[in-house]
Design a protein that fits this description.
Chain A: It is a multi-pass membrane protein. The structure holds 2 protein chains of 2 kinds. Chain A contains 13 helices and no strands. By secondary structure, chain A is mainly α. The longest helix of chain A has 30 residues, at 125-154. Chain B is an alpha/beta fold. Chain B folds into 2 domains: 1-137 and 220-235 and 251-300, Rossmann fold; 144-217, no CATH class. Classes of the chains: A mainly alpha, B alpha/beta. Chain A binds chain B through residues 30-32, 143-148, 150-155, 157-164, 205-208, 210-212, and chain B through 114, 116, 133-134, 138, 140-142, 148-149, 151-153, 155-157, 160-161, 163-171, 196, 212-213, 216.
Amino acid sequence: MLDYDFMRTAFLAALLVALVCGPVGWFLVLRGQTFASHALSHVGFAGATGALMLGLSPLTGLAGGALAAGVLMGLAGDRVAGRDVMIGLVLSVAMGVGALFLHLLTRSASAATALLFGDILGISPGMLGWLALLSAGCLLGLGIMARPLLFATLQPEMAEAKGVPLQLLDVLFLALVAIATAECAQITGVLLVFTLMVAPAATVLRLGLSPLAGLGAAAGLALAEAWGGLILSWYTDCPTSFWIALLGGAGFLLVGLVQRFRA
Amino acid sequence: MMSGRPLSPDISAECASEHASGQSAHVPASCGFPHAGSGSVQVSGLASTPASEAAASGATARSASQSISLQDVTLARGGRVVLSQISLAIPQGSFVGVLGANGAGKTTLFHALLGLEPAVQGSMQINAQPVRRGHRSVGYMPQMRKLIGGQFTGWSMVASALHGQRWGLPWYGRAGRAAVDAALAAVDAQDLAQRPVAALSGGERQRLLLAQTLLDDPSVLLLDEPLASLDPARMRETVERIHTLARARNMTVLMSAHDINPLLGLMDHVLYLARGKALLGTVDEVITTKALTALYGAPVDVVRAGGRVFVVAEGGGSALQEHDCGGCGAHA
């Protein structure tokens, strides 16, 4: 299957995205902000459809929309980020706007499917360059803020007293999440961002590894699930997103079961 | 809490605490009471109890240099004045129990000392420097709350606070790992190092929190309700542990608590907060019917029974809040 250009591109894209989604997701799950990231992907959807209408690339709109929402969410602080109702409202309004934009687009059906469920086989080599750039930026950013972010996540009051800028970290982290979400949506689609952002991270967090090992393992597991999904999709002709979602859920369950029987 | 009365300007009377040793750790406090007629209340020491002797003999070993000092400090929270024109000085190495009802300003005072909330007026110094956020020599242990990251081992949890304000990866290096090990050893928590935090009891998690506050080798410890949700035996054990650590490292400790009894015999001073005022002194000076009645501006009885102290309000406690009467719940 690696004889085909589009498959090689797909494997590379999955690598670039998984390496970011794993560690970013690890913090996301630890901080209890998974629902917020779900909302960011939906705002990204509205941005992507808007970009399509204007004749721009969907990735631009996706990243732009999610980034703006992420920064605003971080600035609003606990007033929004910790509130399910607020996030749910933002999510549904964004989805509604996206539906309107799709309606106004002529070639809506295929575009909608690609955005909602992902189209990893349709990633162009040019897109690969953008993904590489975003991934490098994300990993660099995460590497710089990992230590205070961990402290602020586990002991917010103590961290604040020690001079950790909580709000700045919150904004920066949600910006990272927004970019990672936009990248992830290229592979799994907007609706299934959870599969690569949350599933591997949540599975790894169950293992009780030390933070650095956990961040690495989350990246590794995300990569294994993304590539596993690609390979299975090649042999079964089912969508890649389906397999990634299934692998993510199965991995999470499996670790839970193993731990239960060990205990 | 603001009293309804206008604040009299001359409320900063001095409550000098003469220690049994004769070496005076002078503790001026804003112990003036806006009490009609009486002006200020001079609190005198009562007959020595074993408790105060222990506190006094501990105080002799330390220098009288000021660790924490407040001049005419007014603190507000959410626009409401919580503490009004407080002046006090706490000597280095003193072990202070901070008492008062919910909302009396204990946490607000701690936040102010941490530089998280600026004072409305007045000035505050720690180790002769103005308070500021991120002071390395100030250790802070917040109240225990919902556990985040319970799957981490005790070691990882403590290590997350090691230079947690620095940018970069959570990579600790040999010196860092040794510092974490030393902090764990200081609170006898080596056996908790490899267990997931979620599997630990409240008292064990408390020890990990304490280990975290020790990482920067602080000279001042602010402990917010470290005894909450512990059973009585654990309470005493915790206070003793903190007391021993504080003595060994000559740390000044401010520990807020709802019940005075677990602290009896170990603390050098009581800082009692009520009605926007603060009263600092030894247990025998502060926890008296006269002093507390004046502080609250309402009849309050201090009852001593079985080596324990109870603060009881007349008329079902209209002046005190539920948790304010130390230990009365246990004897109800």
